[in-house]
User: Fold this.
Amino acid sequence: MKERILEMLLSRKDQFVSGEEMSSLLGISRAGIGKHVTKLREEGYRIESQTRLGHCLHREHIPLNSFELKHKLPTKSLGCEFVVLPEVISTNDMAKELARNGAAAGTVVIAKRQTGGRGRLGREWVSPNGGIWMSIILRPRISLRDAAIYTLLTGAAAAAAINGVTALRSGIKWPNDILINGKKVGGVLTEVVGEWQSIDFLVIGIGINANLQWAQLPVGLEASSLEIEAGKPVELVRLIQTILCRLEELEQELLEGNREAVLNEWRKLAVCLNCAVTVKEHNNLWLGTSVDINSDGALVVKNAEGNLVKVYSGDVSLRSEAGNLVFKIQ
Ligand code: ADP
Assistant:
């Protein structure tokens, strides 16, 4: 019933709908309507009520909940189910548990904050209120080897969505960081469960410092948030929906065999190509220039002898030296 009331108010947003009309259309008493309206207000909706006019929904703030996330979501399968929670340890862990218990491909877990958010190699990912902390369950029929490209695909979807929804220009630093003006605003963490030949499922975690303030960000790091960079908050529901749409489109390209389209989208958004790099592999340190990514998602680096070397995993730190972008792979 609450959702039907919401739908009615939404269809006439910024206009008053009388309690009498709502009550006769929905078949419940005006007092019943009043109770649901109070509940909606508690959930974060701004509803103005006036004795003779009725109720009016104002949309300057859209709460983060499954109703809003599903509302007008144009995807086919991503977002078929949303699990939205006030707090979890890690959305990736929760999504893995749901997937093990049979959750459908396209299920999305979103938490308002994470108490044990993780980056790669178990590093801490600071995830307070105001950010986007979400994990998506996918079940593509691919081998483990083909799973790596999902990190690039997701990074591209998230950066493109940020650039589409805000006036900001975000870019991707290989393999998984989303940067704005050289500062980290988000990242992607892909986890795979299954066998070498055929994976069981993928959980793709996306963390975005959306509406975070300086005091909420980790200290001593080159980190920022969309709100800080744009000077105003972003609409979380719209950004999440846009990420899911772009992700679904890119995954479709990939599954249809158009891997190059995915790689090209990533290349367009990359901020780490044609840069001087220092590669540190175990105790071996060498200098080179990043030239491209290959079809497996490895970074291709030209070494001092002019040979192309594929780098599959590593830490990349980006800094500016005399106007040149320089980054390190450790
Ligand atoms: P890397 O950039 O080294 O690939 P990860 O993607 O593994 O890092 O993310 C974890 C690292 O990101 C942490 O060790 C910390 O330095 C940094 N970090 C943690 N939380 C945030 C955040 N909310 N915003 C930006 N950077 C963060």
Observations:
- The longest strand covers residues 183-194.
- DSSP finds nine helices and 15 strands in the chain.
- The pocket of adenosine-5'-diphosphate is lined by residues 119-120, 123-126, 176-177, 184, 187, 209, 218, 221, 223, 315 (CB under 6 Å).
- Confidence is low (pLDDT under 50) at residues 317-326.
